[in-house]
Amino acid sequence: MLDIEQITKTFYSGTPNEVRALQGVDLRIENGSFVIVIGTNGSGKSTLLNAVAGSFLVDTGRLRLKGQDITRWPEHRRAKFIGRVFQNPFTGTAPSLTIAENLALAARRGRARGLGWALSPSIRDDLFERVRGMGLGLENRLNNPIGSLSGGQRQSLTLLMAGLIKPDLLLLDEHTAALDPKSADQVIRLTEDIISRDKLTTLMVTHSMHQAAHLGDRLIMMVRGRVIHDFQGADKLRLTPEDLLARFDEVRRSDLLDETAASMLERQYV
Fold first, then answer.
1. pLDDT for position 200
2. DSSP-based three-state secondary structure for 259
3. Other Cβ atoms within 10 Å of 124 Cβ, number
4. DSSP character for 111?
5. In Å, what is the CA distance from 6 to each residue of 25, 27, 52, 64, 69?
6. Which among 227, 225, 223 is positioned nearest to 254, based on CA atoms?
């Protein structure tokens, strides 16, 4: 479904603030795979999702979706095939529009728009059933502004919107990080239901070791813009939150050793 071939991205190149965010990332994501992405702060997790979504163009390398080269496609063109949910529950929706209007817009993502009614009776009935299936009791509030909802309710609807037209690829960028534990659990349950039901190919970034260990069929760990671990199949099934924390400790010790060695060399030779 998705081929990521040796992509690189450097921000503020040639300045003191230069950041090599992606350094030769190479991944092949199979159709229907649910891939979890973890890493330390600044490891390139969200940058990877932004590169795939088209928020910026990569410096080098190629991106292919279903065999189609999308490397130079702008973000709006990719949106026809890629659904996305952001960390902030208030991103990706229009707060002054109603729940039904937001969903109707999502249902037309990537399609031609004319001057017809976006909310015909048949479309409204379909949206009613979809929202009722979430089990949140929002189906009778379709005329309420989406901005009047709680963060958890809004994120749940954003997730529904992202998967409404069954995208080729679903991107989830720490989509429960800003929620309270109860709302986060609710959104994760909905996430699993939607991905399983529609067999969506998914890339999900998370800081939660519990989510990373128990969700998905594959897990990659990134450090300094590179993939350093790739767990699949039985290896992924055996992972525990404690295993992942131990991996993070290894990375931290390695970084500390590198910094210490650099400091010693600087004192000795500079």
1. 94
2. helix
3. 17
4. S
5. 5, 8, 13, 12, 14
6. 223
| Cα distances (angstroms) measured from residue 138 to each of 86, 99, 122, 133 | 21, 9, 18, 10
Q: Are strands 82-85 and 2-11 parallel, antiparallel or unpaired?
A: unpaired
The whole-number pLDDT of residue 270 equals 37
Helices (H), 12-98: 45-53, 75-78
SS3 52: helix
Query: Which burial class, exposed, middle or buried, applies to 153 when counting CB atoms under 10 A from its CB (0-12, 13-18, 19+)?
Result: buried
Angle between helices 99-107 and 121-132 (to 10 degrees): 100
Q: Tell me how far apart the alpha carbons of residues 31 and 211 are, in angstroms, rounded to a whole number.
A: 21
For residues 94 and 201, what is the distance between their CA atoms, to the nearest angstrom? 26
Q: What is the pLDDT along the chain (270 residues), one digit of tens a residue?
A: 899 999 999 999 889 889 999 999 999 999 999 999 998 888 899 999 999 999 999 999 999 999 999 999 999 899 889 999 988 888 878 888 898 888 888 877 766 665 455 566 777 788 888 888 888 888 888 899 998 888 889 899 998 888 888 899 999 999 998 888 998 998 999 999 999 988 999 999 998 999 999 999 999 999 989 999 999 999 999 999 999 888 888 877 776 545 544 444 344 433
- Length in residues, the chain: 270
For the chain, what is the total number of helices (H) and then of strands (E)? Answer: 9, 10
CB 150 within 8 A of CB 93: no
Which ranges constitute the DSSP H helices of 33-142?
A: 45-53, 75-78, 99-107, 121-132
CA–CA separation, 155 and 178 (whole Å) = 10
In angstroms, the Cα distances linking 234 to 37, 56, 144, 231, 244 are 17, 35, 46, 8, 15
* Alpha-carbon gap, residue 181 to 196, rounded angstroms: 22
Structure confidence at residue 269 (pLDDT): 39
